[in-house]
UniProtKB/TrEMBL annotation:
It comes from Brassica cretica (Mustard). This is UMP kinase. Gene3D superfamilies: Acetylglutamate kinase-like. It holds the Pfam family AA_kinase. Belongs to the UMP kinase family. Residues 1-28 are annotated as: Disordered. Keywords: Pyrimidine biosynthesis.
Length: 298
């Protein structure tokens, strides 16, 4: 039971809602935690200085946060310091003019795949539960953002009166135009399809709201080079085509294919290192950039 509900997820593994079994496989790297930046909820964002560029590369970005990376060893299975770090750095990016939409995973609270394997539970039922767990993560993140002085709206395909509003594309884009952060809760990211991974749903939402990029914050450094003798070698820049043969990533294959077809660049990075979220949202070099143009190893 502990493996299904309340898994602290101490190792780096496949995408937290990847139905295909993950593309990282047995090449997972040991987990590493970075010093986290503490924050005071009473501090106004105007007083927070960012080292990120004052001229962001992208205007509108979808941030996918891995549910597994939110976990802690405490009884609540969500690390408040990590949630605070996300809120602080998203607030910095908003201050710099980036319009941010967020999709949050759920594996820190409930792992549908593990439950199915252990009990034989119906797949759709298990993933519906995961969708509700993702809404719980989203509500916590929304509260943290509002404490930082950032207006945030939660939209979900699951009817949760008094908690979030039903997904509406026009309303979501209007929120973003007004500088609000929009959080798409539920594994299906308001698509209402429990069999769709949160990675794939985030990619679909990126197209839906005309986002210029999708960035995935997880607990790995980026895309690893499976042909390198150095097991820690990661790419700074790689094409979608090369990724299929040279790279190992925690990102869902369906999401990558969708982003490639629609020319949406993807960044995979370690969001546990202070400053990385703001850098990724602003388009600075962090983790691995995946697009149609080039390749490089860090």
């Amino acid at each position: 039971m502990e493996e299904i509900v309340g898994n602290s997820m101490t190792t780096k593994g496949a995408s937290d809602e990847d139905r295909s079994g993950g593309s990282l496989g047995n090449a997972a790297k040991p987990a590493r935690r970075y010093p986290l930046v503490t924050y005071n909820p009473g501090v106004q964002i105007n007083n927070v200085k960012s080292k990120a560029t004052s001229n962001p590369r992208w205007r509108r970005v979808v941030l996918k946060i891995s549910g597994a990376a939110l976990a802690c060893t405490g009884p609540n299975n969500i690390d408040p310091k990590i949630v605070g770090l996300i809120a602080r750095e998203v607030a910095m990016a908003c201050r710099l003019g980036v319009e941010v939409a967020i999709v949050v995973g759920s594996r820190n609270l409930f792992c549908g795949g593990t439950w199915i394997t252990a009990t034989g539970l119906d797949r759709t039922t298990a993933y519906h539960i995961s969708m509700m767990a993702s809404v719980m993560n989203s509500v916590l993140l929304q509260s943290s953002l509002e404490k930082m002085g950032v207006q945030a709206r939660l939209q979900t395909g699951i009817a949760v009166q008094g908690v979030g509003e039903p997904y509406n594309r026009q309303r979501a884009t209007r929120h973003l135009d007004k500088g609000r952060v929009v959080i798409f809760g539920g594994i299906g990211a308001t698509l209402g399809n429990p069999l769709l991974s949160s990675d794939a749903a985030a990619a679909l939402r990126a197209l839906d709201i005309n986002a210029e990029a999708m960035v995935k914050g997880t607990n790995v450094e980026g895309v690893y080079d499976c042909h390198s003798q150095d097991s820690n070698a990661t790419f700074e820049h790689i094409t979608f085509h090369e990724l299929a043969s040279r790279g190992l990533t925690t990102m869902d294959t369906m999401a990558l294919n969708f982003c490639e077809e629609n020319s949406i660049p993807v960044v995979v990075f370690n969001f546990l290192e202070a400053g990385n979220i703001t850098k990724a949202l602003c388009g600075e070099q962090v983790g691995t950039l995946i697009d149609r143009t080039g390749r490089g190893v860090s």
